[in-house]
Design a protein that fits this description.
Metallo-beta-lactamase, Chain A
């Protein structure tokens, strides 16, 4: 299975990173729809997509509008948007309000269920996370492999069991440790707690994203700090592909 990291930054794009979007191109599964969604159509291996949204903050939904043309010209034949009722309502009533975006993309809206079947005998589950206005974390288990996507939350131990034993953990790390106080103030995470979580949950591999856009340097989160705790850690970059 290949995971394409299309957008690995948080809050707003910078010259190095667009905002949140991850894709499993072989099976048409997309997580979040930030400013990087324009990268989906050229990489997609199917003509249908299922978009699973974590929450309704703009850096996770604004790119939904980028799918209008691919839906109109047939490159994407159907797009199913999965989220909580609250998030779906925010999209329809605000992002796609007529005064903001007058042509409606042909989305199918689906409220999240406790379990959703995913191609290749996979099962997707979700967990509620602590974040201003709420957030959702996702996990997919296939026979012999698994991945979890956790973003926009402060590490608090509440979802450790949810991600336990996952082969690939993709987790936000907005701040380095020297800015840890901002993690609690903003509902985000910093380096050491994320690495400790991966170790405690016995994850196979940790990939850090949703990076502060004020940091466009090569080491925005203190990677050696993370690796001292959980050696198999790396910082995501836009257009990174992960085979697992």
């Amino acid at each position: 299975m290949r995971l394409e990291l299309l957008g690995t930054g948080g809050f707003h794009p910078n010259e190095r990173r667009h905002t949140a979007c991850l894709m499993l191109p072989e099976i048409g599964v997309v997580f979040d729809a930030g400013s990087s969604v324009f990268r989906v159509p050229p990489l997609l291996k199917t003509d249908e997509i299922d978009l699973f949204l974590t929450h309704a903050h703009l850096d996770h939904i604004s790119g939904l509008t980028n799918l209008l043309v691919p839906l109109l010209d047939g490159r994407i034949k159907s797009a199913r948007v999965h989220a909580t009722d609250k998030v779906l309502a925010a999209i329809r009533e605000h992002l796609l309000a007529e005064a903001v975006f007058p042509i409606q993309p042909a989305f199918e809206y689906h409220e999240l269920r406790s379990e959703i079947a995913i191609e290749r005998d996979g099962v997707l589950r979700h967990v509620e996370l602590e974040h201003p206005s709420g957030s959702i974390g996702y996990r997919i288990d296939w026979p012999g492999k698994s991945m979890a996507y956790i973003t926009d939350t402060t590490v608090d131990g509440s979802y450790t069991e949810f991600i336990r034993g996952v082969d690939l953990l993709v987790h936000e790390c907005y701040f380095p440790d020297e800015m840890a106080k901002w993690s609690l103030r903003t509902g985000h995470s910093n380096t050491t707690p994320v690495a400790e979580l991966a170790r405690e949950a016995q994850a196979g591999r940790l990939v850090l994203l949703h990076i502060d856009p004020q940091r466009a340097d090569d080491d925005p989160i203190g990677i050696e700090t993370a690796r001292a705790i959980f050696p198999n850690t790396e910082v995501a970059e836009d257009l990174m592909a992960i085979d697992f």
